[in-house]
Automatic annotation (TrEMBL):
<dbReference type="InterPro" id="IPR013096">
    <property type="entry name" value="Cupin_2"/>
</dbReference>
<dbReference type="InterPro" id="IPR014710">
    <property type="entry name" value="RmlC-like_jellyroll"/>
</dbReference>
<feature type="domain" description="Cupin type-2">
    <location>
        <begin position="26"/>
        <end position="97"/>
    </location>
</feature>
<dbReference type="Pfam" id="PF07883">
    <property type="entry name" value="Cupin_2"/>
</dbReference>
<protein>
    <submittedName>
        <fullName>Cupin domain-containing protein</fullName>
    </submittedName>
</protein>
<dbReference type="InterPro" id="IPR011051">
    <property type="entry name" value="RmlC_Cupin_sf"/>
</dbReference>
Length: 104
């Protein structure tokens, strides 16, 4: 999939660990920042560092909203495709742990 022209600032990804079992990335978003379109090739767990609201752009043009609560994790399986945008008015951060034992 080719990524559309960006009109938003990019979120900042900081790789914290990458070994045989996991890849751990911290994501920091200014208000309105985005990851860019991507497909998750691995199952993953997200651990929010801050409270916030994500706006998820989905294939086919739809959107969804996800409320983040600091310290309350969630997981998704491989194959998820989306663009993640900080839909709130404050910076937000989360840690993403990709599970290399769950390829998709």
């Amino acid at each position: 999939m080719s990524e559309p022209l960006r009109c938003r600032i990019p979120a900042v990804a900081t790789q914290m660990q990458d070994d045989a079992t996991v890849r751990v990335t911290r994501w920091d978003f200014q208000p309105g920042a985005e990851t860019g379109w991507h497909r998750h090739g691995l199952g993953y767990v997200v651990v929010p560092i801050t409270d916030g609201t994500l706006m998820l752009e989905l294939p086919g043009g739809g959107t969804a909203e996800a409320k983040l609560t600091a310290g309350v994790s969630y997981n998704r399986g491989p194959g998820v495709e989306h663009n993640v945008v900080n839909g709130g008015t404050a910076p937000l951060s989360f840690v993403e742990v990709e599970l290399k034992s769950q390829p998709g």
